[in-house]
Design a protein that fits this description.
about 375 residues; Arc Repressor Mutant, subunit A; binds ligand LPSJV3QT; Rossmann fold; three-stranded antiparallel β-sheet; 10 strands; seven-stranded mixed β-sheet; about 15% strand; binds S-adenosylmethionine
């Protein structure tokens, strides 16, 4: 069913800003402005930006096709001609030409003489750990979003949550095959989050760090390699946590690490750490679960102990594309959690008895935002 927006009610007294908005929406003004030397550039820029919004889904599908056909990986190995790429993709040459030109328009590849190579952006796509894996499962998200009005009304039984079964608690993460798939993607997509989180925080005072919801140990491994001194404890669900042992062993970190399996929904957290990290954990959960988890974190830390939270956040009063037009929708499709702003998380921290809540600069907000807090 198509929804037509209700007509805007008549405005009694228009502010200056509203008058300006009405003027810009007037097709006659748009046509006049496009011819005026001073306004022409703005009109063109706004038109291009509007077109990008209109065509965003096509752009994403071009990206998805490239990833599914392993074109970034192929072009990282060697440049290739259109016919070669078409043959490898079992695609007619003329259709591959359309795909590659579309990718070139998006700045991902470029044709030099008869051969295609990656651009700087295409090379970043090929190299960012986990990014192609995230893109490859976006078909699930897009199916959930295919009727966006029903989606925003909460009338779609989304599929995305089935892709990440652990969010429904320990019972959701018992099949080792399923957990292995999502744990690998989660760990791969962690690399930039871990790098920015580690860089944003001063770890010199931390003697013992416990990563709660630490998956298969990607964050603690990165931290252990960056900081030689702290002891490291990983806490995650019984179906997930044991796999961290191989990662710790491969990094030579086994003597410094402890793995504790359990559910933070069902029991208290182990004590002993002076620093607890929660990386990409809150946004999977409702406020009540986060509040209960924070109470357990508070109880597990000594007075003066530190909590480090890191995950993609919304922009709050200043919405951001990554936070508000991607992660917020992603979390909504996950059904159990939501993307929050730093201010919202700060409020939850304050209610749980944490003080000195800071957001250190340094992290790339599209990748993650970091908050630190102290247990009172
Ligand atoms: C060679 C020439 C000519 C010049 C060189 C100039 C030069 C040196 C340029 C620099 C090039 C460079 C190094 C670029 C680097 C670019 C990088 C690092 C780009 C990184 C982009 C990262 C992105 C887009 C990350 C996206 C992450 C996403 C979408 C993650 C999603 C994660 C989700 C949804 C997690 C879900 C988990 C759950 C289930 C909710 O719990
Ligand atoms: C989005 S993943 C983040 C994993 C890791 N911190 C990262 O950033 O890659 C959320 C993690 O929380 C864990 N988790 C979910 N519910 C949990 C619970 N009740 N008790 C312990 N861990 C839980 C999941 O198994 C998963 O590893």
């Amino acid at each position: 069913m198509t929804d037509i927006a209700a007509p805007i009610p008549a405005v009694q007294r228009m502010t200056l800003r509203q008058r300006l908005i009405r003027l810009v929406a007037d097709p006659a003004f748009q046509a006049r402005a496009a011819r005026l030397p001073l306004l022409r550039r703005i009109v063109r820029r706004e038109g291009d930006a509007m077109f990008d919004l209109v065509a965003g889904f096509c752009h994403s599908q071009v990206l998805l096709a490239l990833v599914r056909l392993h074109i970034p990986a192929q072009l990282l190995d060697a440049t290739a001609g259109t016919a070669t790429l078409a043959a490898r993709a079992a695609m007619p040459v003329d259709r591959m030409t359309v795909l590659l030109n579309a990718a070139a328009s998006l700045g991902l590849v470029k044709q030099i003489r008869d051969h295609w190579s990656l651009t700087v952006r295409g090379a970043a796509l090929a190299g960012v750990p986990g990014l192609q894996g995230m893109i490859a499962h976006h078909d699930v998200l897009y199916r959930d979003l295919s009727d966006p009005v029903a989606f925003f009304r909460g009338q779609v039984r989304t599929e995305l949550a089935d892709f990440w079964p652990y969010v429904f608690g320990a019972g959701g993460a018992t099949d080792p095959g399923v957990t292995a798939t999502y744990s690998a993607l989660m760990a791969d997509s962690q690399a930039l989050v871990a790098a920015d989180t580690i860089a944003a925080v001063d770890w010199t005072r931390s003697q013992h760090v416990m990563d709660v919801g630490g998956g298969t140990g990607a964050f603690l491994t990165a931290l252990g390699l960056a900081q030689a001194h702290p002891r490291l404890t990983l806490f995650d669900l019984p179906a997930v946590a044991p796999a961290a042992a191989d990662r710790f062993a491969a990094a030579g970190l086994t003597p410094r690490t402890t793995i504790r399996a359990g559910s933070f929904r069902d029991a208290d957290l182990p004590v002993g750490a002076d620093t607890i990290t929660l990386v990409r954990v809150f946004y999977d959960h409702a406020d009540a679960t986060v509040a209960a988890l924070l109470a357990r974190v508070h109880a597990a830390l000594p007075p003066g102990g530190r909590l480090v939270i890191s995950e993609p956040m919304t922009g709050g009063a200043a919405p951001t594309r990554a936070g508000d037009a991607y992660f917020a929708l992603y979390c909504m499709a996950m059904r159990t959690g939501r993307a929050r702003s730093a201010a919202q998380i700060g409020t939850l921290l304050g209610q749980a008895g944490f003080v000195q809540i800071f957001s250190p600069a340094g992290a790339r907000p599209a990748i993650t935002t970091v908050l630190t807090a102290t247990r009172h």
